[in-house]
Amino acid sequence: LPAAVLLKDTRLMDVKLGQLGTWLAMRDFTPGGIKGALRRGYDRYYNKYINVRKGGLGGISMVLAGYIVLSYMWSYSHVKHDRRRKYH
Amino acid sequence: VLHTTRPLHTTQQSLAPVPPLPEKGGEVRHGLIPEEFFQFLYPKTGVTGPYMLGTGLLLYLLSKEIYVVNHETAAAACILTVIIYAIKKFGPEVAAFADKLNEEKMASALAMKNEAIQILQTAIEEEKKEQWRVEGRSYLFDAKRNNIAMLLETNYRERLLMVYNEVKKRLDYQVAMQNLKRQKEQDHMIQWVEKNVVQSITPQQQKESIAKCILDLKALSKSAHAAV
After folding, report:
1. Interface touch A49/B70, C-beta < 8 Å
2. Which end of chain B is more exposed for a tag (fewer CB within 10 A), N or C?
3. Chain B residues lying within 8 Å of A79, measured CB to CB
C-alpha cells in the first residue's frame, strides 16, 4: 500500500478534477509564495529549453509566441472594432 | 549565534562535480509547440490529433472573429515570411558558429583544469622525491661524524707534537748547559796550566832552551843541505 501523499504536496497533473478547488485553495498565495512559484516556473523553463549545450530555436520562439498572444489578448477590445461582420 | 542543536551537513548533496549540461533541450515541433503536447494527445487521437485540433481551433477563431483579420495580419504575414526564410537559410551556420564558441570555451576550461592537475601531479612527485631524500640523512650524519673525528684526531696530534717539541727544547737546554760548563772548566784549566808553566820557565832555562834550539836547527839545516 503506497504511503498516502497529502493533497497539499501532489502535483497539478495528479490532482483529480473534484479536488481541484481544495487544491487551489491550499496553495501559497503570499507574496513570497507567488515569487517562489514564478521562480520555479522560470527555472523549469530555463533549464529545459535554454540552459543546454545545443539549444534550438524553440527556446526563445515559444516565449515570443506567448508574448504575441498575450499582447493580442490585451489589445482585443481595441481590435474588436475592425471586425468585418457584426453577427457571427 | 550558532544553534548547535541544528543538524549540519545531513544530506549527501555536494556542489562538485557539477552534472554536465544536457545535450539538447526539450523537443519543440515547428518551433512553437513542445513535443509533450503531441505525446499527450497521441494515445487518444493518434498522430493527426493535434493537427486536427490546431485546424479546428484556427477555424473557430477566424469564423467567430476572435482573431480579426486586419492590416496587422498582412504585416504579420510579411514579417513572418521573411523571418522564416532567414532562419531556414542561415540557421545552421549560426548554430555552427555558436557551437564553435562554446567548444573554444570548453577547450580552454579543460586545458586549465588539465594544467592544474599536471602541476599538482608534478608537485606530488617532487614531494615524494624529497621524502626519499630525507631517508639518506643517516649517511649525511655519518660523514659529518667522520669529519669531526678527523678534526679531533688532527688536533690531538698537533698538541702531542707541541708537547714533544717543548720537552725536547728544555732537555736540549740542559744538555747545552752541561756542555758549556765542562768546556768552560776545560778552558780555564788549560789556561791555568799554561800560565803556571810559563811562570815556571826561569830566564836561565829560557837561554839554555834557545841555545839548544839553535844547535838543533843548524844540524837540521846541514842534513837538509846534504839531502838536496
Report:
1. no
2. N
3. 68, 70, 72
Of A51, A62, A83, the CB nearest to B28: A62
> B32 CB contacts (<8 Å, ≥6 apart)?
A58, A61, A62, A65
Contact status, residue A15 vs residue A23, Cβ threshold 8 Å: yes
For residue A73, the enclosing domain spans: 56-87
Total domain count, chain A: 2
Do residues A79 and A68 both lie within one domain?
Answer: yes
A31 lies in the same domain as A73:
no
Per-residue pLDDT of chain B (228 residues; tens, 9 = 90+): 666 666 666 667 666 677 778 888 788 888 888 888 899 889 989 899 899 999 999 999 999 999 999 999 999 999 999 999 999 999 999 999 999 998 999 999 999 999 999 999 999 999 999 999 888 888 899 999 999 999 999 999 999 999 999 999 999 999 999 999 999 999 999 999 999 888 887 777 888 888 999 999 999 898 888 876
Write down the ipTM of this complex.
0.76
Question: Do A79 and A45 fall within a single domain?
Answer: no
Plot region of A2 (φ>0 → left; ψ -120 to 50 → alpha; else → beta): beta
Report how far residue B106's alpha carbon sits from residue B165's, in angstroms, rounded to the nearest whole number: 86
Please indicate, yes or no, whether residues A45 and A3 belong to a single structural domain of this protein: yes
- For the entire predicted model, the pTM comes to 0.59
Contact (CB<8Å) A65/B34: no
Distance CA B29, CA B35 (A): 6
> A6 and A48: one domain?
yes
